[in-house]
Specification:
Elements lengths: L16 E2 L3 H13 L5 H6 L10 H12 L26 H7 L3 H10 L3 E6 L5 H12 L4 E8 L9 E10 L4 E4 L10 E4 H8 L2 E2 L4 E2 L1 E6 L9 E3 L6 H18 L5 H9 L10 E3 L2 E4 L9 H18 L2 H13 L15 H16 L10 E10 L7 E10 L2 E9 L24 H11 L11 H11 L6 H19 L16
Antiparallel strand pairs: 1-6, 2-9, 3-4, 3-9, 4-5, 5-6, 7-8, 10-11, 12-15, 13-14, 14-15
Helix pairs in contact: 5-15, 8-15, 9-11, 11-13, 13-15
Length: 505
């Protein structure tokens, strides 16, 4: 008895050639012999079928991230850390993607905040020769992969915009292998690279912009070792706009005459929910997974975090930020800055919820979690000083779990809101001055160009220059700069970077 619905579609051939056909197999063997299928093996080992009709972008990205062996730093299910579509919602909610698909710009943002190195190209700002160069480069290596955004109609296929990775290249016939993530619809297939370029070069009616391709590779180091920018909350749009657009205008229109005044102009006008934008990266584990001693991996990561924190506090800019923070809190207390001067136990409650969010293997609002029984303890580190651990019970609905947050030690002492006795957080975590210093360093160089006082401009540029910083701090600042730049590009109203949707497979 026939059943309603669809079971796959016939692959229009030509122009496509089914990978599993006799011709497709021969093309594969030829490409293997010529060395342009090296990227194929890890991709095929991690091949993923999109789980929703509009998840082609998420499926393509999770497939590539797993092929590159990028550690998501959080659990998928059980004890396993693994990228899945359900975990890729830091730049757009899954419910929105399920209905509308994801734009090229948001997918670039998502790849970046998932730990990948990304280069993105629209066809209007690239060329077929450049595209072919990158396809060949990634086909000869397993260190990078290409994801394309194209229109199916060019291949006589049903549907419109679509994302899929390229699995290989046949140099003799100039063919690219598309590993179609909508495998329920079409199998992997070879297509002429010139025709693929044509499919990418079509204008997306929903944005008025050309489609394109992105080159994704593994970073030289794990990104965001101590600090990260968050686009999870909707407030990131206004905060990114403020930092990248409003701050340069404020500095240009305000008569600033010293460094403290510059810092005041920037921070006194911050959006009210700014504290959700930049956070320090916690080292989190479930209580039942850990013992009373640190593992070697945990110990090494904490050491790196503490070294970066020390390097931040040795910058000349940090001293100015610390003085500013002391002055704005001198009257017990400017409410805008309470989030940066909380005691460690108060911060612990928030961080435990964030940790539970990570451990859940999905990214949901931490407001859904209730933290209780938070305490600050010490763990033994063999041969070293004890490590501070924030422990708490986190309840989400009827589920309760224990969370441990390993806290990096700060070499400085953090005073309380009135500048008198040290608070409970003395020397124990990245405080407000540390975080805000890192953010100032991450602002683009052109931010300061509107300062009219030449001597002050020279001083500011000297303070924010990373040229002579230690390598670790340079990389941390550059990572934040890339994040900030990409977040600005990913803003919903920025059509220049909104390169196309994938509403249907």
């Amino acid at each position: 008895m026939a059943m309603a619905g669809l079971y796959r579609r016939p692959l229009p051939s030509p122009p496509a050639i089914d990978f599993a056909s006799a011709d497709g197999k021969q093309l594969f063997l030829d490409a293997v012999q010529s060395g342009t299928m090296e990227g194929f093996y890890k991709l095929i080992s991690n091949f993923q079928t999109q789980s929703e009709p509009a998840y082609c972008g998420l499926a393509s990205l999770s497939m590539v991230l797993n092929a590159l062996a990028i550690d998501p730093g959080r659990k998928w299910k059980g004890p396993w850390r693994w990228f899945d579509e359900s975990m890729l919602d830091c730049c757009e909610s899954l419910e929105v993607v399920k209905v509308n698909g994801i734009s090229f710009g948001k997918l670039v943002c998502l790849a970046q905040c998932s730990g990948a190195e990304v280069e993105a190209f629209r066809t209007s700002h690239s060329s077929i020769d450049e595209f072919r160069k990158y396809v060949i480069l990634c086909s000869r290596s397993d260190d990078c992969h290409v994801i394309t955004s194209y229109h199916r109609g060019t291949f006589k296929q049903t549907g419109t915009g679509h994302f899929s990775p390229i699995g290989g290249y046949h140099a003799g016939k100039d063919l690219a292998l598309i590993l179609d993530v909508a495998r329920f619809k079409y199998p992997p297939h070879w297509v002429p690279l010139t025709l693929l370029w044509e499919a990418m070069d079509r204008v997306d009616e929903s944005t008025g912009q050309h489609r394109g391709f992105m080159l994704i590779s593994r970073p030289h180091r794990e990104p965001g070792l101590l600090y990260t920018l968050s686009c999870k909350d909707n407030s990131w749009v206004s905060t990114a706009e403020y930092l990248m657009v409003d701050v340069p205008r404020l500095l240009e229109s305000t008569n600033v005459n010293d460094v403290r005044r510059v810092i005041s102009v920037i921070f006194m006008s911050l959006p009210s929910d700014f504290s959700e934008f930049i956070k320090w990266v916690a080292e989190v584990r479930r209580s039942e997974d850990g013992g009373q001693q640190l593992s070697n991996d945990e110990k090494q990561r904490l050491c790196v975090k503490e070294e970066i924190l020390r390097q931040v506090q040795e910058t000349g800019l940090y001293k100015h930020v610390q003085e500013f923070m002391s002055s704005v809190n001198s009257c017990c207390m400017n409410k805008k800055y309470t989030c940066w001067q909380d005691s460690l136990p108060e911060i612990a409650a928030r961080v435990c919820c964030q940790g539970a969010e990570l451990m859940a293997g999905r990214s949901v609002s931490s407001t859904g979690f209730c933290c209780s029984q938070t305490s600050v303890n010490n763990l033994k580190a063999v041969g070293d000083e004890p490590i501070t651990v924030v422990s708490g019970k986190v309840v989400n609905g009827g589920i309760e779990q224990g969370i441990d947050v390993l806290v990096p030690r700060s070499p400085s002492k953090v005073t309380n809101c009135c500048g008198s006795k040290p608070s409970d957080s003395t020397g124990m975590h990245p405080a407000g001055s540390d975080v805000l210093t890192a953010l100032l360093l991450a602002l683009p160089e052109e931010t300061w160009s509107g300062i009219r006082d030449d001597m002050l401009l020279k001083e500011i540029r000297s303070l924010v220059s990373i040229e002579n910083f230690p390598t670790l701090l340079q990389e941390e600042v550059l990572h934040l700069r890339r994040q900030l730049h990409i977040l600005k590009k990913c803003q919903g109203n920025n059509l220049e970077e909104d390169l196309g949707l994938c509403p249907n497979p």
